[in-house]
Amino acid sequence: MEIVDYELFAVPPRWLLLKLETDEGITGWGEPIVQGRLETVRTAVSELVEEHLLTSDPLRTEYHWRKLYQSAYFRGGPVLMSALAGIDHALWDIKGRHYDAPIHQLLGGHVRDRMLVHEWLGGNSAEELADAASRARENGYRAFKLNSPHEFRPLETPAAVDRLVEQVAAVRDAVGDDAFLGLDFHGRVSKPMARELLGRVEPYDMMFVDQPVLSEYGDAFRSLAQQTTVPISTGERLYSRHEFKPLFVDNSVSVVQPDVTHVGGITEMRKLASMAEVFDVAVVPHCPLGPVALAASLQVGFASQNVVMQEQDLELHDADSSHGLELLEDPRAFEFEDGYINRLTGPGLGIEVDEDAVREKAQTQVNWHSPIWHHEDGSIAEW
């Protein structure tokens, strides 16, 4: 079997899908994207596929991963690793379809029958967030994450700190003590303010605080972890096992959140999960993207003991109205029940992409970019 062709499709709101074709008629799908850098990643995928994959045997997933990563003198980073990730998704999809097995079966078999998922909560005030949390709870979700604070200066006022605490308190009250609640600072907070905020949210029993500081300041994670009982997390802006390694060795994090679309795909995320297990670190994969990325992430999770929960942003509770799930032949492919997704049992990624729907949506211009935030003095704020 050989790879004979490929296509890339940009679809709203900010996704890029890759289709790999073989001479035996087996097709694989992947989702290579850096949100806001779609055209850059598109070019990187084309370069990698045309230079290294066409006419190759797609079943050699490990070899191809090494070749695509290691053959370049300059390697790593968000663009190249995300391009590699999407290609890796598609290769594993082909492999699973060739052997008529879900990918997790090829990774050693499933260790769980269903995966708990968490729902992102949006809102600007404590009241709005509490309302969103109550609706999500009614829709069957049992785990939640909110992004807060918004524009947050390196030194902030007591009132700004109090607003964040009020939001957390309101959401905790709305979802109850039998639900999981995570908080994502999104790298918006400085080290001294992160220390204060972590102390203030401790009474609300957070399952983690994600990105308490930017990943560039990795040496700050250990000191923060030593000063709080809140589990510290990071990972969506790290792109290989090598970047996670210092966090494990320094005992800086209790949870990591790699993204299967940025961390080199299924091949690398499976190895990262095993590496995290050695350090007793839980894995909660990041995935605010489309159904292909979610399926790829779940395949690793079903085969990895320490992947305890999965992020998603696809309105799984109402599949018939979900814009993201419109890209699938069966929008109910992710069977959502009681806060969990049931194990995917179909071959490959376990989903069937509706190519006609993809082609129709790909006619739309996709030009999403991260918003640019400013502090009140006009300086750039972290988004």
TrEMBL record:
This is Galactonate dehydratase. It comes from the Archaea. GO terms for molecular function: galactonate dehydratase activity. It is an enzyme of class 4 (lyase). The gene is dgoD. InterPro entries: DgoD-like, Enolase-like_C_sf, Enolase-like_N, Enolase_C-like, Mandel_Rmase/mucon_lact_enz_CS, Mandelate_racemase_C, Mandelate_racemase_N_dom. The keyword Nuclease does not apply. SMART domains: MR_MLE. The lineage of its organism: Archaea, Methanobacteriati, Methanobacteriota, Stenosarchaea group, Halobacteria. Its EC number is 4.2.1.6. The keyword Glycoprotein does not apply. It holds the Pfam family MR_MLE_N. Residues 126-231 form the Mandelate racemase/muconate lactonizing enzyme C-terminal domain. Keywords: Lyase. It comes from Halopelagius fulvigenes.
